[in-house]
Amino acid sequence: AQSVTQLDSQVPVFEEAPVELRCNYSSSVSVYLFWYVQYPNQGLQLLLKYLSGSTLVKGINGFEAEFNKSQTSFHLRKPSVHISDTAEYFCAVRRANQAGTALIFGKGTTLSVSS
Amino acid sequence: NAGVMQNPRHLVRRRGQEARLRCSPMKGHSHVYWYRQLPEEGLKFMVYLQKENIIDESGMPKERFSAEFPKEGPSILRIQQVVRGDSAAYFCASSPVRDRGGTEQYFGPGTRLTVT
Q1: Number of residue pairs across A and B with CB atoms under 8 Å?
Q2: Which of A14, A38, B49, B54 could form a cystine bridge with B69, CB 3.0-4.6 A?
Q3: A41, exposed or middle or buried, with CB in 10 Å at 0-12, 13-18, 19+?
Q4: pLDDT tens-digit profile of A9-36?
C-alpha cells in the first residue's frame, strides 16, 4: 500500500518570497509522483509529475519539484510566489507500471500568499 | 475542447433521500475515476470505471453507494438514503487510456453534497 504525508497543513508567505511545500511518501513498490493545485471551488489541476529520469521536474506556473528516492520525498518549490498562487496543493502518488490505478493523495497544504 | 463536466455543482439533500451525481468525461476519454473529499482531508479514491464496466470499486462503501458508466451518457455516482456523513465534495477524473500509471487524470470541478 502507498501513503502520502504532507508535512505542513498551512503555509503563509509574503508575495515574492520563495516557498517550499513538503511531501513524503511511503510505498513498497515503485510509484509515480504528482502535485496538483486546487483553487477555491474548482477541481484539481496538474502542476507537475515525476515518472522517471531527471529528479528535478519543472511544471506550470513556475513551480518545480525534486524527487529524492533515499528520503522518499517530493517537495514542491517556487522561487517567488504571487498572490494568485494562493490555493490548496496536493501531493499524490500512483503505483507505477500497473494499469488503472488510482491516485493516493496527501491531506493537502494551504498556501496563503499575502502582500 | 470542453473539460470534465460535473453536475450539479451543489446538491442539498435531506437525510434518507437519494443523491445522483453526474460526470461527463473529456471528449475521447473512456475511463472515469470518482474521488471523495471530506472536510480537511485529501481526496480518497472510490471507484474506477470504463464504459459499461466497473474495474475497481475497492474504495466504495459497501452499502448505499453505486456507480455506473453506460455506453452512452455520463457516469453516475448514486448514493441512496444519504446520511450527514456523506456530506463532501465528490470529484470525477477522466483519462484517455488504461495507462500504466503515468497518464494525467483530468479533474472536474466537483459536486458539493450537503446532507441536512
Answers
A1: 73
A2: B49
A3: exposed
A4: 999 999 999 999 999 999 998 999 999 9
Using a CB-CB distance cutoff of 8 angstroms, which residues of chain B are in contact with residue A2?
Answer: none
Inspect the interface and report whether the beta carbons of A41 and B109 lie closer than 8 Å.
yes
What letter does residue A103 receive in the DSSP assignment?
Answer: P
CB contact under 8 A, B101 and A101: yes
Question: Between vectors from CA B33 to CA B108 and to CA A95, what angle results, nearest 5°?
Answer: 120
Dihedral (C-alpha) A77, A80, A83, A88: value to the nearest 10 degrees?
A: 0
Closest residue in B to A30 (Cα) is: B101
Rounded to whole angstroms, how far apart are CA atoms B116 and A5? 32
A88, A101, A110: best mutation site toward chain B, by most B Cβ within 10 Å?
A101
Q: 10 Å Cβ neighbour count for A12?
A: 11
Q: Select from B41, B48, B110 the Cβ nearest to the Cβ of A102.
A: B48
Could you tell me whether strands A109-114 and A10-14 are parallel, antiparallel, or unpaired per DSSP bridges?
parallel
